[in-house]
Amino acid sequence: MGIARISFNHKRAHFIRAILEGIAFNLAHVYEVMSDPHDKIHVTGGLSQSPVWCQLVADVFDREVIVPTLELTKKLPPSHVYQPNSENVTIYNELKPIFQQITTQLMGSYERLIDWQKSQVNGKIETNNR
């Protein structure tokens, strides 16, 4: 989903946060439709090194987030554990249905955009680098 309600007051940090929130909301949607959701979420990879990302995931999912000491072993104790912040959980629970509604309403537009991209030569827009 794109970023909604952009204004001149928004700074780079707002865009980065909005992108991370969008990713977290999409992951939460997949998580919710899983047949066997878990009480804890283990986060690995590059973004696991970001406390902002890990806390955001804990808040959006309303689950404890565990970052293992080493990615290759799950038997070691976690190096960081993030607990959901109840104030943030309340906010994200209010925002989830809005995000899902916007995503649903834009689905047809996304499909049209994908069709347009497929119709272009090599799917690329040529730019003039001056």
From TrEMBL:
Record domain Carbohydrate kinase FGGY C-terminal: where: 7-68
GO molecular function, one term: kinase activity
Keywords carried by this UniProt record: Kinase, Transferase
GO terms classed as biological process: carbohydrate metabolic process
One Pfam short name: FGGY_C
Record flagged with keyword RNA-binding: no
Family label: Belongs to the FGGY kinase family.
Protein name: Carbohydrate kinase of FGGY family protein
Organism: Listeria rocourtiae
Higher taxonomy: Bacteria, Bacillati, Bacillota, Bacilli, Bacillales
